[in-house]
Design a protein that fits this description.
The structure is a single chain. The longest helix is centred in the C-terminal third of the chain and has 10 residues, at 1059-1068. This protein is flat. The chain has 9 domains: 7-46 and 336-478, Immunoglobulin-like (Sandwich); 57-334, Beta-galactosidase, Chain A, domain 5, CATH 2.70.98; 483-597, Immunoglobulins (Immunoglobulin-like, Sandwich); 603-709, Sandwich (Immunoglobulin-like), CATH 2.60.40.10; 714-808, Immunoglobulin-like (Sandwich), CATH 2.60.40; 813-920, Sandwich (Immunoglobulin-like), CATH 2.60.40.10; 923-1028, Immunoglobulin-like, CATH 2.60.40.10; 1036-1171, Immunoglobulin-like (Sandwich), CATH 2.60.40.680; and more. Helix content is 2%, strand content 52%. The protein has 1268 residues and is mainly β. The chain has 3 helices and 99 strands.
Length: 1268
């Protein structure tokens, strides 16, 4: 019971890809089919039958259509195969493009092994050095073409040199081979043992496959589809596969498919076959097949990324002198895969087209047999199909399913006319896991058919214990064996009554098998007509396949004017080719008309408009012409000898073969009359040639013509329109023409006067219808007109005289040798003129004034007053010529002015006029385009100079300048203009710059001159610098009484600027920032934080800040405080006088900021003196340790002192204001009372420091001011 499948079951089932290929030793039709449950079909068809860059090459191109294969053999022995099967060039054997300095097609090669020595092609790499040439290179002596048994080949002849000095010769050739499976290129190697001893010789071929666009083409053999490197050995199971396939794509999308034949008629099966990586596989440390020399490389179980085929024919013994083909294999193309999709369930799938279903025929979409013509009609074992079996190879790919066990393919319900060797084919391997592919085969046999037949063979895929996985239909095409018989028409010529004639009739057969010709070939028609025809024995018994034979028929005429008409019928037959199967029985016939005519003797000479024209014949000569007399009747006839030429009074026409008359002309043949024309009278001759015979029409007429020519010649006088110069040699040519058919002899040629001299004075002979020239020469010393007559005398053709005249005059021109136009500025034009004068006795025509030379394009020629060329100058006349110069560059500009004249040149050639001029151009350049003046004090300015150079070849004048300020505000004064700079010289321009603001400034200066700039577009000189405030800031010496508030002035001097100028300058520049630190002894002086009470820093919109801080005070103001005020000093600060240990403190100024750094300020310190006269001296009773300087300020070699009420461990350290420790002054047990600590001079410099003393857990600190 047929199982019905639900849609969800179909989706859940595995998908199987079924590909069908068919290999046999004689014929193979390959079909690849992809079957899925929702089902795709990929179909592949083929049939197999018995059968550079820097290098020159030979090719067999585009052979075996539709495969269009091209085999290329390089002059270095490498080879490749390409195809245009898809419409574009694609490779089967890889073809290098010649890049990288390597030869084209270097990747496929052949080796010969002779007594353990391996000979390689010279461009191969040595496997050890990986450089070429290898250790034992083959010597490729030549490549050549030849044809063997009608097949074109390309060949490479080479030899190997043995260590003992013997040579072995090798021949490698490629040839096309057509097999029903497709088209192939056979590659063969022949060995000729030309050495003196027996040798062991083997062959290796490496074929670098690149199938279409795929250089890593997957390889399939009759033993399965392999995804890793695989090897086969003859005699080792499973043995050598008969073929291999290479796919452009994958088993699911194969694309272009190549096939290699290993075992077939005409091939030599290799002993070893390996497919794997052409290049190295570093992952498994495997050397590529490209470097394999013999059998040292075995298959490694890894995938390949650059597929190639290695074939090996092991060594065999060869006797001295023996020649043998040692290796032969094929690579070619089978039809590409096509993919169609269908739908259906498990019970069968309806698929459109292709070998597994569809309506394909004649091999299109089907497996197909081919017919073969029968060569021997006596061969009773002949079979009309080749091969007599088809082997379908199926590739089954388990796409997604779990494992398949016991997979097989089975054909069922074979139709009549097909047989199968085995209904089932097991899959190799029989177990298919998910994603794996196996191979199976079915072999079919076909019985011959009369008509083309397409069989549908059900195909079943089974697995897992015989479970049916899929049904489908395989399409097989068996061609029919029809036959066609063709009789070729032939014609009986008219026949004399009572006579008989026999002619053959060709019988042709178009069919693959021989046919029997029935003995009853018959003539049919009216009995009276049939009686006049008969078949002449013997008649052939058979007609060969696609061949022909003939049957002879006789006809007997009865009477003149009586025609007989019948038909010849020929029958041929072929019995059934199949026992008990009569559907190949053939009976074919054909018919041809028979027509016989009785006719008496009759001849034909000419139609009324036929003419025999002899043309021009010289008097006294003879001409012969043949004319045919045709027997158009059925009997032999006689042409009588009473022929005549009518209207020929001078008897100029006659018959040369008069002895042949009377002339008998047999039936079907022609006779010939040899007519002679011997003119004796000048002029045209015409007559009627009349021929007579007892046969019809009794007489016939031919018009004959000729022309009698008399010797004659024509003389063409010379044409001498130009005059000669005195002393110039005359050369006149006089043409003498013979327009007749007679030779003309000129006996003598001479001139009446000297120095005229003809070159053929002794005469010459003019052949018929020819001509020649007579050259007359002479030299004339003085001007004048010279005349003579030239005489030609001929005894046969008469005398002729022609007049010759020569005019001799001087033709001379005079002009200056040179013309110097002088200096012309580049970009402008200058003009000068010259005069050309005719000084000879004859006029001269000036046709052209031509300029030549290196700088000719810069010169021009102008004719004034409307004059034009050509221009005639009579003797004594002159022509003025204006010459212009527009120099494109400086310095000397040269050209030549050539005066050309018409016809003959002047008697004394006018030398070219040398034109000279000088292009001038002053060129201004500033070697330095940028000047940095540095920092310039405001109110003082800076002077510098700008260097200008003249690179040109003419003086230049710098008249003025222009300046543009691009940054800041600065006044610029340029002095020394205008000035003149001579060529290749330089000059300096004085420049004074005074900044009007603080900060950077820039100004661009351009100089105005009558020169070009050296660098167009770059005409500016940039002046840069910075305005700064230069001056001195200092603090006054101030006295104060302890307890009073004192004012401390801070003054500034920026001469020649006043303090108010400083204020204005800082305000205008927007650089009003001031930061000033004043260090002091805080025990004597304490600054107040009140803003300055006077000076330019007082009274600001935002008051300046005064920040006391221990031993220093900071005075600070910036742009945000507003414009500075008027005043005659910088600022006045307030401070309190304190009772300290000393009576004074220095004021140490430190400038932290002024005008954003745009300054050069010198600082001078101030001094505050404290007076205590109005205050009682007080004594302080000390009870705690303290430390202080011995005086203030200290010098670097000063002394600190500390006091302890009692002894104890004491540490004294000195720090700077950043907190960095400078020195440890004391560290140890100290006595009570005062201890002095001298400072270490090497570690101390001017500045404010802090001294700390630690003793008994207490710490004291004091500021120490040190001044050098």
């Amino acid at each position: 019971m047929k199982k019905e499948w639900r849609e969800e079951e179909m989706i859940d089932q595995m998908m199987i890809t079924l590909r069908t290929f068919q290999p046999t030793l004689k014929k193979m039709t390959d079909i690849s089919v992809r079957l899925r449950y929702r089902l795709g079909l990929a179909i592949f068809l083929s049939m197999l039958g018995t059968s550079l860059y820097g290098q020159s090459s030979l090719s067999i191109s585009d052979v075996l259509p539709p495969y269009d294969l091209t085999a290329t053999l390089l002059s270095n022995g490498h080879f490749s195969v390409t195809t245009k099967y898809t419409g574009e060039d694609k490779t089967l054997i890889y073809q290098e493009d010649g890049s990288g300095g390597r030869p084209v097609n270097y990747t496929s090669h052949i080796h010969f092994k002779v007594d353990d020595i391996i000979f390689q092609l010279p461009y191969e790499l040595d496997p050890t050095t990986r450089q070429s040439p290898p250790a034992n290179p083959l010597n490729v002596t030549r490549t050549f073409r030849d044809t063997v048994a009608g097949t074109a080949r390309v060949n490479a002849s080479m030899f190997g040199l043995m260590p003992d000095g013997d040579t072995i010769q090798f021949l490698l050739w490629m040839e096309p081979v057509k097999r029903p499976s497709g088209g192939f290129i056979r590659i063969s190697a022949e060995v000729h043992n030309t050495s003196k001893r027996a040798r062991q010789i083997g062959v290796l071929m490496l074929i670098d496959t690149k199938i279409g666009d795929n250089d890593r083409a997957p390889i399939i053999s009759a033993f399965g589809y392999e995804t890793t490197e695989t090897e086969f050995e003859l005699g080792t199971p499973p043995g050598m596969p008969p073929f291999w396939l290479g796919l452009e794509g994958t088993p699911l999308q194969p694309g272009l498919t190549a096939r290699g034949n290993l075992t077939a008629d005409g091939l030599i099966t290799p002993d070893y076959f390996l497919f794997g990586n052409w290049k190295d596989n570093t992952a498994v440390n495997a050397v590529g097949l490209a470097l394999t020399q013999w059998n040292e490389r075995r298959a490694v179980l890894t995938g390949y990324t650059d597929s190639s085929i290695l074939l090996l024919w092991e060594e065999e013994g060869m006797a001295p002198g023996e020649r043998r083909v040692r290796a032969s294999t094929e690579i070619g193309l089978v039809d590409s895969l096509s993919v169609t999709f269908g739908s259906g369930g498990w019970g069968g799938v309806g698929l459109g087209g292709g070998g597994l279903g569809g309506g394909g025929g004649a091999g299109k979409g089907c497996l197909a047999f081919d017919t073969v013509a029968q060569r021997d009609c006596a061969d009773l074992d002949f079979h009309p199909y080749i091969p007599d079996s088809l082997q379908a190879l199926f590739l089954l790919t388990n796409d997604t399913a779990p494992q398949l066990d016991g997979a097989a393919i089975r054909a069922e319900s074979l139709p009549t006319g097909l047989k199968v060797s085995s209904n089932s084919g097991g899959v190799i391997p029989s177990t298919l896991g998910a994603g794996t592919t196996g191979v199976a085969t079915l072999t079919f046999f076909a019985l011959p058919r009369l008509f083309d037949t397409v069989y549908r063979v059900p195909v079943v895929v089974e697995a897992n214990g015989g479970q049916t996985i899929l049904h489908d239909t395989l399409c097989i095409f068996v061609p029919g064996l029809p036959a066609t018989l063709t009789l070729t028409n032939n014609k009986f010529l008219p026949l004399c009554p009572g006579l008989s004639d026999t002619i053959p009739f060709s019988v042709a057969l178009r069919g693959a098998t021989c046919l029997d010709l029935l003995p009853s070939a018959e003539i049919v028609g009216a009995p009276a007509d049939v009686a006049q025809f008969s078949i002449v024995p013997p008649t052939p018994a058979k007609i060969p396949a696609n061949g022909s034979t003939s049957i002879s028929v006789s006809y007997t005429a009865t009477a003149t004017g009586v025609n007989h008409q019948a038909k010849l019928v020929v029958h041929a037959t072929r019995r059934g080719l199949n026992r008990s199967d009569r559907d190949t029985t053939v009976i074919v016939s054909d018919t041809v008309d028979l027509l016989g005519e009785g006719r008496d003797a009759e001849f034909f000479l000419a139609d009324s408009d036929d003419t025999l024209n002899f043309g021009n014949i010289c008097l006294g000569d003879t001409a012969l012409r043949e004319w045919t007399i045709t027997n158009v009747g059925g009997c032999d006839l006689v042409i009588e000898n009473n022929y005549q030429f009518e209207n020929d009074p001078s008897a100029q026409f006659s018959v040369a073969n008069d002895l042949d008359f009377p002339m008998t002309i047999e039936r079907k043949l022609d006779g010939t009359a040899l007519v002679r024309f011997a003119p004796s009278v000048a002029g045209s001759a015409e007559a009627r040639f009349i021929v007579r015979s007892p046969a019809l029409p009794f007489l016939d007429t031919l018009i004959v013509k000729g022309f009698g020519d008399a010797p004659h010649y024509d003389v063409t006088p010379p044409n001498l329109s130009d005059t000669l110069c005195p002393g110039e040699k005359l050369r006149l040519t006089v043409r003498v023409k013979n327009p007749t058919a007679c030779p003309v002899e000129i006996d003598t040629i001479f001139a009446d006067a000297l120095p005229f001299a003809p070159d053929a004075g002794s005469g010459f002979i003019l052949p018929p219808n020819s001509s020649r020239t007579v050259v007359v020469t002479g030299t004339f010393a003085s001007p004048g007109i010279y005349q003579t007559q030239l005489h030609l005398q001929s005894a046969t053709a008469g005398d002729t005289a022609i007049d010759l005249q020569v005019v001799v005059a001087s033709r001379n021109l005079n002009a200056p040798v040179t013309l110097d136009i002088g200096d012309v500025r580049v970009g402008t034009s200058g003009t000068s003129s010259l005069t050309i004068t005719a000084t000879g006795s004859a006029a001269v025509e000036i046709t052209r004034l031509r300029l030549s030379g290196a700088d000719a394009s810069e010169y021009g020629v102008i004719l004034p007053n409307g004059e034009t060329l050509p221009h005639w100058l009579q003797s004594g006349e002159a022509l003025q010529v204006n010459v212009t110069l527009s120099p494109a560059d400086i310095e000397l500009r040269r050209a030549n002015l050539i005066v050309e004249t018409s016809n003959a040149t002047t008697c004394e050639p006018l030398d070219p006029i040398a034109l000279t001029g000088r292009g001038v151009l002053p060129i201004l350049d500033a070697p330095s385009r940028r000047y940095d003046l540095g920092r310039i004090c405001a109110g003082r300015g800076s002077d510098t100079t700008i260097l200008l150079r003249n690179f040109g070849n003419a003086p230049l004048t710098v008249s003025t300048y222009s300046a543009e300020t691009i940054a800041g505000d600065v006044s610029l004064i340029v002095e020394g203009l205008p000035l003149t700079i001579l060529p290749d010289s330089s000059a300096r321009v004085q420049l004074h710059a005074e900044p009007k603001e603080l900060g950077p400034f820039g100004i661009e200066v351009s100089f105005v001159s009558d020169a070009e700039y050296f660098t167009p577009g770059d005409t500016l000189v940039r002046i840069e610098g910075g305005g700064i405030l230069c001056g001195t800031i200092w603090a006054d010496t101030v006295k104060g009484v302890m307890g009073d508030v004192v004012e401390i002035p801070i003054r500034i001097d920026a001469s020649p600027l006043t303090v108010d100028d400083v204020r204005l300058l800082m305000n205008r520049s927007n650089r009003r920032g001031v930061a000033l630190s004043i260090e002091h002894d805080p025990t004597i002086l304490r600054f107040r934080s009140d803003p300055p009470v006077e000076g330019i820093l007082s009274g600001l919109p935002t008051p300046a800040s005064v920040t006391p801080g221990g031993s220093a005070v900071l005075l600070q103001s910036d742009n945000a405080n507003g414009d500075l005020s008027s005043g005659d000093l910088l600022a006045t600060l307030q401070a309190d006088i304190l009772l300290g240990q000393t009576d004074r403190t220095p004021l140490l100024l430190k400038l932290l900021d002024f005008a954003d750094g745009w300054q050069n300020i010198t600082l001078h310190n101030g001094l505050v003196l404290a007076e205590y006269c109005a205050i009682d001296r007080r004594y302080i009773q000390l009870s705690k340790p303290f430390i202080r300087p011995l005086r203030t300020p200290l010098t670097s070699d000063g002394t600190l002192q500390f006091w302890l009420p009692e002894s104890g461990y004491t540490t004294v350290r000195l720090y700077d204001l950043t907190g960095r420790q400078i020195a440890t002054l004391y560290d140890g047990e100290a006595p009570s009372g005062v201890t002095l600590l001298p400072l270490p001079p090497a570690l101390i410099s001017t500045g404010l420091y802090v001294a700390t003393m630690a003793v008994g857990g207490e710490q004291s600190t004091v500021q120490v001011l040190i001044a050098e």
